[in-house]
Write a structure and sequence with these properties.
The chain is of the alpha/beta class and 270 residues long.
């Protein structure tokens, strides 16, 4: 097993029962029949903290998000979101953004972004106004009256992110939201994600295969072991977010922690 070699962050140091933790996982294990997906996961995420989870394919990253969101209950252990352990209450507190944008093809971009507002009972005019403002903030306001088929992949993901933010949920669960994009678009949206989360701070768990993305976007990065997944390594991000992305990801401290994470991943696979 890979041992955590970095000091614990403030969020990690909190006890599982700490009222200061927005997300608390204690001894969480989950199986699908005879397949053990997760084993003994311990995790605390502080309010407003952005945590990234990386690991090999099949190590249980997406399953972990599903459990946090209350879409399933763990086989053993306990999960709380905002102090609530009931699955329905956890689901009510979480907004999920999957890898695929899942935009409704017959709806305009502004109406896709406003979907959560409409489902919450907000009138069409108000929902469109709020969604239009969010699309402007995310750089796609001029495409508000376009259908998804008229948008590039990066534009579609911006609309999907607007929809996620507009739910107003305190916890964001982002499951490989940029994985399908080309490198240039992905880098642009990483910067947008950082800027947006800084301006509209939510407790966020990001699942990604991209170690560089994890350290650039998140405050803290966790590594899950190969199946059954458990947290076996963690490090705080050294990113200076006052710097442009190109400078941040080439800084010596960033390069060092990225290489340490890649070595830990390689050791886990071996």
């Amino acid at each position: 097993m890979i041992e955590t070699t970095t000091p614990k962050t403030q969020a990690e140091a909190q006890s599982p029962e700490s009222p200061g933790a927005a997300i608390e996982l204690t001894g969480v294990a989950h199986s699908f029949g005879d397949l053990e997906a997760l084993a003994g996961v311990e995790l605390n995420v502080a309010p407003g903290e952005v945590v990234a989870i990386v690991g090999a394919s099949g190590c249980g990253k997406s399953t972990l998000l599903e459990l946090i969101a209350g879409l399933a209950e763990p086989s053993t252990g306990s999960i709380a979101v905002g102090g609530e352990r009931d699955a329905a209450a956890r689901l009510d507190a979480c907004a999920w953004m999957p890898q695929r944008d899942l935009l409704l093809p017959w709806r305009l971009a502004v109406d896709n972004a406003a979907l959560g507002l409409r489902l919450a009972g907000i009138g069409r005019a108000e929902a469109r106004e709020r969604a239009g403002g969010m699309l402007e903030r995310l750089g796609v306001g001029e495409f508000a009256r376009s259908h998804p088929r008229q948008l590039s992949g990066g534009m579609r993901q911006r609309v999907a992110f607007a929809r996620t933010l507009l739910t107003g949920k305190p916890v964001l669960l982002l499951d490989e939201p940029l994985a399908a994009l080309d490198a240039i678009t992905r880098a642009e949206l990483q910067e947008l994600l950082v800027e947006t989360l800084a301006a509209e701070r939510r407790t966020t768990v990001l699942v990604t295969h991209d170690v560089e993305e994890a350290f650039f976007v998140a405050d803290r990065v966790l590594l899950l072991s190969p199946r059954p997944g458990r947290v076996v390594w963690s490090a705080a991000s050294p990113v200076d977010r006052s710097e442009p992305r190109a400078s941040a990801v080439t800084a010596p401290a960033f390069a060092a922690v990225r290489e340490a994470a890649l070595e830990a991943l390689a050791e886990g696979r071996g």
